[in-house]
Amino acid sequence: MKNRLDRVNELIKRELDTLIRKEVQMPSKLVTVKEVDISPDLKHAKVWMGMIGTQEEQFASMAKLHAARKELQSALSKRVVLKFTPQIHFKLDETGERGDRILTILNELNLPPEPKTDESDEDAN
């Protein structure tokens, strides 16, 4: 059953990404479907969106996605044949931004490099 959900998630991800690119004009510079997590009963799908742009552009893009949700679900139902067409719930994936922010903070700390240890000495113990 798990493999089937993985295949359905990947199929919905691919088809939704194509539909969004064709159907919805986005303020953000780059919008991608990062991940789809469909419920086991196939009735709901969380769609994690990755966006590059300012915070205002990202919020405006999410608003456009929410406004186009019913049309996207309808188009998805014609492209992906399932017992139920899942109700789509768009979520903004901010993991990339958090990672960039952490890397920036680490770079600003100017920590001295850690002394290198000889790993072969550790393996011998």
**Broad shape:** flat
- How many beta strands in the DSSP annotation? 3
Biggest sheet layout? 3 strands, mixed
CATH class group: Alpha Beta
CATH domain fold name: GMP Synthetase, Chain A, domain 3
- SS class: alpha+beta
Number of domains as seen in the coordinates: 1
Topology diagram in text:
Layout: H1 2-23, E1 30-38, E2 44-52, H2 55-67, H3 69-79, E3 87-92, H4 95-109, H5 119-124
Parallel strand pairs: 2-3
Antiparallel strand pairs: 1-2
Helix pairs in contact: 1-3
Task: Write structural notes for this entry.
The chain is an alpha+beta fold. It has a single domain (2-94), classed as GMP Synthetase, Chain A, domain 3, CATH 3.30.300. Helices cover 54% and strands 19% of the residues. The chain has five helices and three strands, in the order H-E-E-H-H-E-H-H. The chain has helices spanning 2-23, 55-67, 69-79, 95-109, 119-124; strands at residues 30-38, 44-52, 87-92. A three-stranded mixed β-sheet has the order 1-2-3. It is flat, with a radius of gyration of 20 Å. It starts with a helix and ends with a helix. 17% of the residues are buried.
